[in-house]
Amino acid sequence: MSAFIEKLWEMGPVMVGGVPHANEIGMKFVAIDKGRGTLSLPYNTALIGDPRSRVISGGAVTTLLDQACGMAAMAAFDELMPIATLSLRIDYQRAATPGETVIAEAICYKTTRHVAFIRAVAHDGDPDNPVATAQACFMITGPAYGTSKAKETDAKKSGENS
């Protein structure tokens, strides 16, 4: 495991818990590796989209998939890059099982200078029986955090906002 991936493992719980909406819905960090990110969303009655069936909202599943795809995109590089969701397509295949945790597993399968391409699956225990699948593109929005180029860019932005 590279030093960068080890750093991401340490940062994982903070990267999820530090995002207000992810924290609010109870999203949990599970794992990260080179080009991969796994998160979970424990069943929560506050997330129910249909009171009769007690199925969680598709919006919660979308949020989980977007966050997992972002983690996979971050883990695809050798340094921490600023990223933003460029596109996210979700194909819902069935309702999540009421009472079960939903797991999102994302894999970055290609990167270019400016874009990371990710596939993901959300399931409630069996990846071969997905709740939803996702295809995403994340844009690299600037130089790696902590580099002299990033500091120069931040300084220019600060001057523009003065």
TrEMBL record:
Transmembrane segments: none annotated. InterPro entries: HotDog_dom_sf, Thioestr_dom. It comes from the Bacteria. GO terms for molecular function: 1,4-dihydroxy-2-naphthoyl-CoA thioesterase activity. Residues 55-128 form the Thioesterase domain. PANTHER family: 1,4-DIHYDROXY-2-NAPHTHOYL-COA THIOESTERASE 1 (PTHR43240), BLR7284 PROTEIN (PTHR43240:SF7). This is PaaI-family thioesterase. It comes from Litorimonas cladophorae.
